[in-house]
Amino acid sequence: KDQIAADVxxxxxxxxxxGGVSEARWKELKANxxxxxxxxxxxxxxxxxxxxxxxxxxxxxxQVLFAGSNxxxxxxxxxxxxxxxxxPSNLILIYxxxxxxxxxxxxxxxxxxxYKVTPFTEKQKSLFEAAANGPGHKGLALPPxxxxxxxxxxxxxLDAHCxxxxxxxDPLAKLVRNDYATKSLNxxxxxxxxxxxxxxxxxxxxxxxTVSLVKPAAYATATEQLTAKLFASxxxxxxxxxxxxATSAGxxxxxxxxxxxxxxxxxGFSQHLEKFLNLVLQRISKPEKLLKAERFAAIKTSSxxxxxxxxxxxxxxxxxGLMNKALERPYWDAWQxxxxxxxxxxxxxxxxxxxxxxxVAMEVFVFGNANSEDAKRITKVASQHLPCKAVSASxxxxxxxxxxxxxxxxxxxxxxxxxxxxxxxxxxxxxxxxYFQYGIQxxxxxxxxxxxxxxxxxxxxxxxxxxxxxxxEQLGYIVSSxxxxxxxxxxxxxxxESATKNATYLNSRITNFMDNILDPMxxxxxxxxFAGVVSTLATQLTEPAQGASSVRxxxxxxxxxRTYRWDRRxxxxxxxxxxxxxxxxxxxxxxxxxxxxxxxxDHTNDSLATRRQxxxxxxxxxxxxxxxxxFQSEDLPVVLGSWQAKQDAFxxxxxxxxxxxxxxx
Length: 665
Prior knowledge:
This protein is an alpha+beta fold. Helix content is 41%, strand content 15%. Strand 3 (182-185) and strand 4 (191-198) form a beta hairpin.
C-alpha cells in the first residue's frame, strides 16, 4: 500500500515537470469531453435528476447541465497551483484490511466497524517525500498524443435494404427484422455467421461490434471454464494500457468467457472503430506477445481473493448460483470453480487460444453507424485475425443453441429441499428461495403465450408478496418474486431473507403465501382485472426504444441466445390479444401441480445437523434435447449441505445416440 501511494506521488511529480501541464493534452481532453456530451444517450429520468441535483451544489445554475464537461479555457498557472497541493504533507492514506490486523482499534458507534488512525512513520515519510521530489519512476511516463481523436462525426446514409428507413420513433418491433441478416461460410471454408443492423432512429456516429467464438461443449469442466475466464482477464489486463488513448476518446473493449465460447466486444465513434478493432483482434490473435507470467500470477491471486469474498456475500446473493446448481446441467458452482483455480497454470493460458480455435465457429454482430459494406469488411477483418476452422458437423450445419443443455424436473407434487448454513458464519441472516416448476412451455404460439402468462403471474404476485412477507409479516428487508425461465423450462420463484427468523419459518411463510394468498387471488381473478394486467404488458412492449443502446441490447440478445426472433415483440403483441383469464388459470394450476425446489441457507445453530439433501427426489428432463442426458435421482450430483458437489462427467451426444428414457418420455 505504501509503494502504491509513492507511485501516485511520483506520477504527480511527473505532471509537475516539463511537459506535464500540456495545452495539447488539454485540447485532447476538451475534444473528447465535448464529443461525449454532444452524443450522450438518454439517461433514466431518476438518474439524470439525481446527477443534476448534485451538480447544483457545485456549479452556477446556468452551468449545471454541462459544467462537468466544459473545458472553457486552458490555464497552466491554475493547474500547477492545484498540483502543488498534492504533496505528502496533505496526504491522507485510507486502506482496508482484514480485522485480524487491527489491534488496539477504535470502533464506529453506528455500524461497529473497527478502524485505526495512526500518523505516518519516519520510514513512510521518507518514502513519500522521495517519490514526490525525486526523478520519475522508470515505469511511469506521460501519455503520447492520442491516435484516436475524433474529428468526423458523419452519420451515414441508410442502406437501401435497411429496415429502419423512415420509421421515426416506432416501437422496436418494427425496427429489428431479419431483412438485414447475412450468413455465410467464407471463402476459406471457415464457419462465419454475420449479422448487421444499421441504426436509423437515433442516428449516432457510433458503431459497435461483437465477435463470438463458439465451440460446442467448450467448458465441460470447471477447469476449462475457469481457464477461459482467466484468459479473458489476462488479455483485458494486457490491453488496458495499450488501448488507454482509445478509451479516453470514448472507445470501449470487453473480453469475456461465455457458456460456450469467448466474446469480444468493441465500440465507439465510427471514424476509428475499425482501426481499434484491428488493434484489439491483432493482440488477441497473438497472446504470446501480450501475456506475462508475472501479470498472470497477480491476476490469479486477485481472482482467488475475489472468489473468497464472493462466497462471503449476503445469503440472497448466493441463491441464484445455488438454485442453478440444483436445476441445471452442466453447471459449475463458485466452490468448484474456486477449487479448480489452484490447478490453472500460465501454460494453460498460453495454450488456450490454440486449443480453443481448433474447432470453432464465429458469429459477428455489427450495429450502429455502419452500412452493409462496412459490416462485410468488419466481418472479414475478424475472420482474418481469428480464423475459425469448424470441423464438427453440428457447427457446419448451424450454430448450436446457446440455451442450457438440460434442467432438473422435480416429480409432480413433490418438494425437494436443500439446506445448509451460510458460508459466512458471522452473517446473522437466513434465506430461502422456493421454486415452482411449470415445465417445458408448449410448442409454437401457445408457448409464446405461456411466457406471457408467466410475466402476468409475476406482475400479479409482486405487490401481494412484498406487502405480505415484508410489510405485514416483517420477515426481512429482502423479498422478491417473479418468473424463472431456463431455456424453454418455465417456473416461478419467491425469495425471503431475514435476520430474525430461521429458514424453517421462512419456508412456512412462503408456503402460506402461495396457499392462502396467491392461490385464492388467482382462483378469484376476473376478466376485467386480468385485462388490466394484459394492458400493462402491452404498454411495456409497445414503449419506444429510449436510446440506441436499448435497440442494440434487444438485437444482441437474440444473437447471443441464437434465437434470431427479430419480430419477437410483434409476435408477443399478437399473442397478448389471444390471452384470456381461463387459460391463465390453467397455466397457474399446472404450475402449482408441478414439483418444487427449496434452497435454504439457515443461520440457526441446529442447521449443522441438517446439512444434507433432505428429499433428493429429482430427475433431469431435457430441454432443447440436442445434448440431453438423464440421471436417476440418487445420481443427481447435488449436495449443497457440505458445499461440495462431485464433478459431472459431461459428454455431449447426438440425439440419435440417446437411450430411451422413461423419465423424459
